[in-house]
Design goal:
Elements (H helix, E strand, L loop, with lengths): L3 E7 L3 H11 L4 E8 L6 H15 L6 E3 L14 H4 L21 H11 L4 E5 L4 H9 L3 H4 E7 L15 H4 L2 H9 L4 E4 L1 H4 L4 E2 H8 L4 H21 L3 E2 L3 H9 L4 E3 L2 E2 L1 E3 L10 E3 L2 H5 L9 E3 L2 E2 L4 H9 L6
Parallel strand pairs: 1-2, 1-4, 2-3, 4-5, 5-6, 6-13
Antiparallel strand pairs: 7-8, 9-14, 10-13, 11-12
Helix pairs in contact: 1-2, 1-11, 1-12, 4-5, 5-8, 10-11, 10-14
The structure holds beta-D-ribofuranose and calcium ion.
GO molecular function: purine nucleosidase activity
GO biological process, one term: purine nucleoside catabolic process
GO cellular component, one term: cytosol
Length: 321
């Protein structure tokens, strides 16, 4: 069967690294290019991390483009060193890649790939949506060209993780997110509702650590750092699986139990709601008719726990040539 062309936009980041590895380990995925955006770390540090991870897995030919550093309003806030470490990979040593980023920007790369794979390109966005909004501005026809965009972000029925109501990717650039949700494309949103309730346990991290593949082993080491942060939240050594779950849903390998198609807007005010994803779930819970023009599938529940599938997929990776 034909492989699906993908563009990944990320802020690499420990769970971004897991999502990247998941795509590389999936035979049906043809990863055509990667853009980085400032989020967990700066866009340039994220790009360096991405190049190193690709090189460890034997995929150095996949181009990496640096995207925007600052959000639409204000400035990059310095990232999330308390979650992902100052280097974004929990202080785990990754060998130098020997490769460089390309000269086009992440948004330019997305627009070019959308034209080259018109009607079939899949976009997976697992950082702030700054580059995606920029690409919409570069080419307003983008939504017609892209087959589907999957976004890790937001919180529909649960609290946020960076404020009472906002999730980090959306809160780090609410203006960009609002434009992306308003554009007429088919969106799948993977919010905290499912990513917080699908934890990877210590036993799973141990399985990855035991791998002889350098990339998979390094992911196990990164998870030790990540679990340290989440221990303070969950009370045991485990971690939320945000970005890899979005990758698996984008690929179509996860069965969804509850995923209504609804309208989603983003709060861009400067009040306490800033960055909230306002999902109109009246149809799902109160029986109201679905809003005309609704085009965002919001994943609220999975059929099965995700971590065992993630571990199995990562352990199935072929060694780098
Ligand atoms: C999201 O924010 C980032 O820290 C993670 O990589 C993930 O994309 C979770 O809120
Ligand atoms: Ca991320």
């Amino acid at each position: 069967p034909a492989k699906l062309p993908f563009f990944l936009d990320c802020d690499t980041g420990i769970d971004d690294a897991l999502a990247l590895a998941y795509l590389l380990a999936t035979p049906s995925v043809d990863l055509r290019g990667i853009g980085t955006v400032s989020g967990n770390v700066s866009a340039s540090v994220g790009a360096e991390n991405t190049l190193k991870l690709l090189s460890m897995a034997g995929f150095s030919t996949i181009p990496v483009a640096v995207g925007l550093h600052h959000p639409q309003a204000g400035e990059f806030g310095g990232g999330a060193p308390h979650v992902h470490g100052h280097d974004g990979v929990g202080g785990v040593f990754l060998p130098g890649s020997g490769s460089a980023v390309v000269t086009e920007t992440a948004a330019e790369m997305l627009v070019r790939l959308a034209h080259e794979h018109a009607g079939s390109l899949r976009v997976l966005a697992i950082g702030p949506l700054t580059n995606i909004a920029e690409a919409l501005r570069l080419d307003p026809r983008l939504p017609e060209l892209v087959a589907e965009i999957t976004i890790m972000g937001g919180a529909a029925l649960v609290p946020g993780n960076i404020s009472a109501v906002a999730e980090a990717n959306i809160r780090n650039d609410p203006e960009a997110a609002r434009e992306v949700f308003a554009a007429p494309w088919s969106i799948t949103l993977v919010p905290l509702d499912v990513t917080m309730s699908n934890a990877l346990e210590e036993e799973h991290a141990t399985q990855l650590l035991a791998s002889s593949l350098p990339l998979v082993h390094a992911l196990g080491e990164m998870l030790a750092h990540y679990s340290g942060f989440y221990e303070g939240i969950f009370g045991r050594r485990c971690c939320a699986m945000h970005d890899p779950l979005a990758a698996a849903i984008a690929v179509g390998s996860v069965a969804l139990r509850t995923a209504p198609v609804v309208s989603v807007d983003v709060d861009t005010t400067s009040g306490p709601g800033r960055g909230q994803t306002v999902c109109d779930l009246r149809g799902q819970y109160l029986g109201y008719p679905v809003q005309a023009g609704a085009h965002c599938r919001v994943v609220l529940e999975l059929e099965e726990q995700f971590a065992p599938h993630l571990v199995e997929r990562l352990l199935s990776m072929a060694p780098a040539p």
